């Protein structure tokens, strides 16, 4: 197994940043954000970022094309992506899984979103395997291995420390990290940065159990009998319709297309939207197929736990815990799933 000394990790990242645009989770105030790496920054990958890294592939605002009108003639210019190679360091496995779930939306079913494809193809993913979950984590309930590194090019993980005395442990530089290449891209990086790595016999620190869990067995089949259940009305009365659950979620991908006109020129752009907002399904003629808060609330959780799984074979949730941490009225998906499991369904 290969390893890298704790004190050499920033130098390793500095070396990577010389070859490509590099983003890493760093502390800003009381929160963690993925930011462009600058030498001297302090990594913070032992807790989840405030926002998931999905905006690095599916930006909050994405220019699509611009147009101009000259008399009877018009011209449309597609705004092709020009970002060069980049690397994202420190992605935890819940967020790593969310990228593979978004891949199914933007790169499958016979259609590929060109902007999304460009960003995926030009990005190296360097994962951080968790050893200690956060209080809101429940990824294992969704079948996610927090130390799997599935979909990553390189994986970093904490190694067990030697049996040192208390004083040495307290004052030491911290654990070494194991490092494994999972793809040819990862192998190329390790080969190029071989001066930073060494062989080791140490083992990875095992993962501690998630503090939260909920059973998913049979939940899809039960939801298929609950479309008109009173549970949706009861739960939705607490919802503030603020949309924070969709904003911080690593897998939500609702968007709107907007445009700006300036005389004979203009442009179109795609921007994040939320199925929890009252005008999300509002049509040009004034009709809204989901006019009530209950219908919008129901649709969100049916999409997560029924519609997406029926189409792609997986739940549209990774157990990252952000909705649990941020929802002001505690209507996170683990709570709702628990209420669904408890609900009595009349199947007569």
Explain how this protein is built.
It is a single chain. The chain is α+β, with helices and mostly antiparallel strands. It has one domain. It is built from 11 helices and 12 strands. It has helices at about 10-15, 95-105, 115-120, 165-170, 185-190, 220-225, 230-235, 245-250, 295-310, 320-325, 335-340, and strands at about 1-5, 20-30, 30-35, 60-70, 75-80, 85-90, 125-130, 155-160, 175-180, 195-200, 255-260, 265-270. The strands form 2 sheets. The protein has an 8-stranded mixed beta sheet with strand order 3-2-6-7-8-9-1-10. A 4-stranded antiparallel beta sheet has the order 5-4-12-11, with no helix packed on it. The model is unreliable at about 165-170 (pLDDT under 50).
C-alpha termini separation: 59 Å
The main β sheet shows up as: 8 strands, mixed
Number of individual domains: 1
Strand numbers in spatial order across the main sheet:
3-2-6-7-8-9-1-10
Estimate percent helicity: 25-40%
How much strand?
15-25%
Give a brief description.
Helix content is 28%, strand content 22%. The chain is α+β, with helices and mostly antiparallel strands and 348 residues long.
Topology of this protein?
Layout: E1 2-4, H1 9-17, E2 21-28, E3 31-36, E4 61-70, E5 73-78, E6 86-91, H2 93-107, H3 114-121, E7 123-129, E8 154-158, H4 166-171, E9 177-181, H5 184-192, E10 197-199, H6 219-223, H7 231-236, H8 244-248, E11 255-262, E12 265-272, H9 293-312, H10 322-326, H11 333-342
Parallel strand pairs: 2-6, 6-7, 7-8
Antiparallel strand pairs: 1-9, 1-10, 2-3, 4-5, 4-12, 8-9, 11-12
